[in-house]
Specification:
Strand content of chain B: over 45%
Order of helices and strands of chain A: EEEEEEEEEEE
Oligomer: heterodimer
Number of strands of chain A: 11
Number of helices of chain B: 0
Distance between the termini of chain A: 40 Å
Helix content of chain B: under 10%
Structural class of chain B: mainly beta
Number of helices of chain A: 0
Chain lengths: ~110, ~110
């Protein structure tokens, strides 16, 4: 099975700073990438998707994709304490005739006032 | 995105018993998935629930232990059979979105086996 790697953290940033979350993946054929946010005790929530090389911005979130380096990242600008959560990177895989997502272990982000 | 509900939200079960978890979606969806998330861990795909055919199981998961039903395009069940404490986990259903391969998750079922 293909792998998705994330630094488990915790990544600690001060309020107002930029948080940078990184993810690498092993399948060169992957074309679809997703970032999920998971608060403690809650289910994952989709916050960003990216399919093409470059940057994609949505509010305070920017996803960056570099397929040549097999690297996807999530930047959170003006970090708030409410951003404190675990961020999961997911990569689409087509295997055995089925489409599925492979999840990384997640990076725990702590934003302190 | 679709609204997904799961029942029960949590349960405490005795070793050797079985529990059936229900997943209901407010709209028809082609793909439904079942995941397990053990404490402090990421998501592990158990199986893809196919409407009208048997579920497709991932390596390490078998139908006898985790039978799945998908009677229509809005509903699926996952049964955890002959439970042991190692089955204590959060079980999540998800559905594929309409834009691509994104998935949306239900609220989860927290299972504790004693």
């Amino acid at each position: 099975q293909k792998e998705v790697e994330q630094n488990s953290g915790p990544l600690s940033v001060p309020e107002g700073a930029i948080a940078s979350l990184n993810c690498t993946y092993s399948d060169r054929g992957s074309q679809s990438f997703f970032w999920y946010r998971q608060y403690s005790g809650k289910s994952p929530e989709l916050i960003m998707s990216i399919y093409s090389n470059g940057d994609k911005e949505d509010g305070r979130f920017t996803a960056q994709l570099n397929k040549a380096s097999q690297y996807v990242s999530l930047l959170i600008r003006d970090s708030q304490p409410s951003d404190s959560a675990t961020y999961l990177c997911a990569v689409h895989e087509f295997s055995g005739g089925y489409n599925k997502l492979i999840f990384g272990a997640g990076t725990r982000l702590a934003v302190h006032p | 995105s679709a609204v997904i509900s799961q029942k029960p939200s949590r349960d405490i079960c005795q070793r050797g018993t079985s529990l059936t978890i229900q997943c209901q979606v407010d709209s028809q969806v082609t793909m439904m998935f079942w995941y397990r998330q053990q404490p402090g861990q990421s998501l592990t795909l158990i199986a893809t629930a196919n409407q009208g055919s048997e579920a497709t199981y991932e390596s390490g998961f078998v139908i006898d232990k985790f039978p799945i039903s998908r009677p229509n395009l809005t509903f699926s069940t996952l049964t955890v059979s002959n439970m042991s404490p190692e089955d204590s986990s959060i079980y999540l259903c998800s559905v594929r979105g309409t834009l691509g391969y994104e998935q949306y998750f239900g609220p989860g079922t927290r299972l504790t086996v004693t």
